[in-house]
Predict the 3D structure of the following.
Amino acid sequence: MNTQRSRFKHPELQCPNTGCGFKPWRPLQPPIRLLVVTSDLDRDLASGAAAHPNFLYSHLPSDYQVTFTGSSWEAIHICINQALDVIIIDVAERPESGSHQLCLQLRQQSAVPIILVGREQEREQLLQGLQAGADHFLTKPFTLQELLARIHATLWRRKPLPELAETLMAGDIIMNTTKQEVYIQGEPVALTPVEYRLLNYMMRNPDRTLDKDEILRMVWGYSEDEDFNFLRVAIARLRKKIEARPGSPQYLKTVNRRGYRFCANTAG
C-alpha cells in the first residue's frame, strides 16, 4: 500500500478540469485511492495501536493508495485536484459541526463517495454527516474486514446502472438515465450519487412496496440492520429535493413497518 502524508499549505479551490464547480468520479481502476481525513493524524500514525483506524489503513491490500490529512481545507483541495475513489472522514474530536460542514463542502465539489467513521457516542454527528451528503458510516471499533467490506460496498455502487430506458417519467419528474440527470417541472435537480441511484431504483419499480432490506441491497450493495439509518436519511434528503411538500410527500411514500413505495400516478 502506498501511504502519503500531504503537506499542502495554501489550497486553491479550483478544479483543473473545469475551472470550478463539481468534479465527477474518475473511471474505477487500480490503485484504489483513498483520502483519510482525521484530526488525530500525528498521534495515530505514531502509536501503531490497533485501536486507531490509521493502523488498519496501513494493512490494506497493495492495490490501495492512501493519503492522510488533518485539515478540512486540504481535504477539499485534494478532492478537487486529485483522482479519488473514496473519502473517509473520522469525526472524532472534530468540532461538533466540523464533519457536517466538510461533507457539505466536499459535496459542492465532487461526487466521490464519503464514508464517516466515529464512536457510538458520536452517532448524532454521523447522522448529521449523512444528511450533509455522506454515503455511509462505520462505528468504532471496527476490523480490517469490516472496513474493506464497507469500501467494497461503496465501490460496488459505482458500477453503471443498466440502461433499460433512456428516460423515466412520473408526474413532474423526468430522469435522463443516459446523462444521469433529473428534472422537476423542467428545472434540473442536483442529486448526490446515492440519491440518484435510490430514485432510479424506485422509479424503475413504481407503485410497489419495497422493503428496507431490498433497497439497501440494491442501492447500497449490502443489508445490515444498523444501516437503516442510511436509507432513512437518504429518503429525507431526496424528499426535500423532489417533493413540493416534503412533509406530505406525493412520490416517496412510507409504508409503515415495511419500507417505501414510489407513487408514479400522483393524480388527485
Q: What stands out?
A: The CA atoms of residues 76 and 106 lie 6 Å apart.
